[in-house]
Amino acid sequence: MEAAQRVHKGLEGVYVLESSLCLIDTEHGKLYYVGYDVEELAEKSSYEEVSYLLLNGRLPRRSEFEAFLTKLRSEMELTPEEKRDVQYAAKRTGPMDALAAFYLFASKDPPQAKDQMEHAIKAVAKAGSVLGNTIRVQRGEEPIESQPELGIAGNLIYLVTSKRPEQYQVEFLDDILILHAEHGVPASTFGAVVTASTLSDVYSSIVTGLMTLKGPLHGGAAEAAYYQFVEIGDPDRVESWLERTLAEKRRVMGFGHRVYKIYDPRAKYVKAMAARAAELAGGRVKTLYEIAVRLEQAAIEKLSSRGLFPNVDFWTPIVYTAIGIPPGYFTAVFAVSRVVGWVAHVLEYWKDNRLIRPLHLYTGPEPGQRYVPIEARG
Ligand code: ACO
Predict the structure, then answer these.
(1) What is the mean pLDDT of residues 229-250?
(2) Ligand 1: which atom is nearest the Cα of residue 249?
(3) 191 and 284 in one domain?
(4) Burial of 372 (0-12, 13-18, 19+ CB in 10 A)
């Protein structure tokens, strides 16, 4: 096989596009959005401001941010028709599918090219309101009005809990949304860009992103990590559980990463949040945290020599639990955050669009097989 004809399975090691949105520094365990350290953004910025940064390639001036916020907030409320769409989908599908159905309905009238930024902002603004109401409907409750002044994070907690959230809960979720907003071209972002490259629309690209994120190899690890902590049940059972798990060649969920072979910078940040969450929420959250701390230590001892460390999904389940997000919805919260990353990539790609159309190496039968009518095939 000639070098040019080599198949790069899983596209591993292949550069598929240029992007100024995010730099993953795997050597030092750092992540930057448009040059800004994501840990500093989580500490000092808001998900809304990070959304502006990703969509526009720079931080806003005050007046620009105020205009952006006004637009974003005006889109956070769902129209009566959108609420009906959410109810319809939430009753028939899982949370990721319900989110996708919402964007599918939104794409029914193909948006004009010049409006794409408008649609991008709308897509980002609606995501949390759709998920919050999806959770309500799936619990047998009615959708309620959004509270845009609470921000995207605060509003999502409000919709899920029907209560004005505590300030610490809003800060936690806002930080988590920032940390999950963008991460280069994982499968879901690549999928979204492939869709966009055909000059399809923003909403259709989000549908592709959502359906690709849904798979357990991509978006589902936080939930698996949660159930793993529940299965362990008590910090004193960690070591025996780990022995058994590794002997059975099962994986420690929330450990390992295709890109990071050292501690995932997002995990480092969320670990500190989980510690605070355990202190503030106590009870079950504290037990989950104590199990996680002990498991982290025991698993690092066994696995770090192979470049396996906690990834962000190891710690987020503890923070989600403190906020009141039920475990079946962790992946969907990740999705709500990542909508802006998908859309930012789509807008960036369109600046110099090229239809994505790779090649395949044919491995089938010799061409020229003789067609035998079905009656004569026996
Ligand atoms: N626990 C135990 N062993 C592991 C783990 C783990 N979590 N992860 C990898 N290994 C082992 C594998 O068994 C394999 O061992 P072997 O060489 O003896 O067969 C070796 O490490 C390499 O594993 P690969 O799957 O080839 O490595 P890859 O880089 O493709 O995997 C992945 C990355 C999929 C994340 C993997 O580490 C994993 O399955 N982790 C658990 C799931 C998880 O936490 N996913 C979240 C990723 S982060 C995110 O999506 C936000």
Answers:
(1) 97
(2) 13
(3) no
(4) exposed
Pocket lined around ligand 1, Cβ cut-off 6 Å: 218, 221, 251-258, 303, 306, 308, 311-313
With H, G, I as helix, E, B as strand and everything else as coil, classify residue 181. coil
Catalytic one of 180, 183, 257, 345: 257
Q: Which atom of ligand 1 is nearest to the CA of 312?
A: 51
Same domain, 268 and 183: no
Is 257 noted as a catalytic residue in this protein? yes
Same structural domain for residues 172 and 240?
A: no
What spacing in Å lies between the alpha carbon of 307 and ligand 1's midpoint? Answer: 10
| Residue range 322-374, pLDDT digits in tens | 999 999 999 999 999 999 999 999 999 999 999 999 999 999 999 999 999 99
323/158 Cα distance (integer angstroms): 10
Average pLDDT estimate for 279-301: 96
Ligand 1 atom 40 nearest Cα: 256
Q: What is the pLDDT of residues 8-64, one digit of tens each?
A: 999 988 999 999 999 999 999 999 999 999 999 999 999 999 999 999 999 999 999
User: b or e along 273-291 (b: 16 or more beta carbons within 10 Å of the residue's beta carbon)?
Assistant: bbeebbeebeeebbbbbbb
Contact residues for 375 (Cβ-Cβ < 8 A; gap 6+): none
- Identify the CATH number of the domain in which residue 195 sits: 1.10.580.10
Q: For ligand 1, what atom is nearest to the CA of residue 219?
A: 50
Q: What is the CATH number of the domain that holds 276?
A: 1.10.230.10
In terms of domains, do 266 and 252 share one? Answer: yes
Q: Are 157 and 177 in contact (CB under 8 A)?
A: no
Q: Is 360 a catalytic residue?
A: no
Overall average pLDDT of the 298-309 stretch: 96
User: Is 178 in the same domain as 250?
Assistant: no
Confirm whether 301 is domain-assigned: yes
Distance 257 CA to ligand 1 centre (A): 6
Ligand 1 atom at minimal distance to the Cα of residue 264: 48
- The confidence score (pLDDT) of residue 218 equals 85
Q: Which residues are 22's β-sheet partners?
A: 33
Q: Which protein residue has the closest C-alpha to ligand 1 atom 28? A: 258
Closest Cα to atom 42 of ligand 1: 253
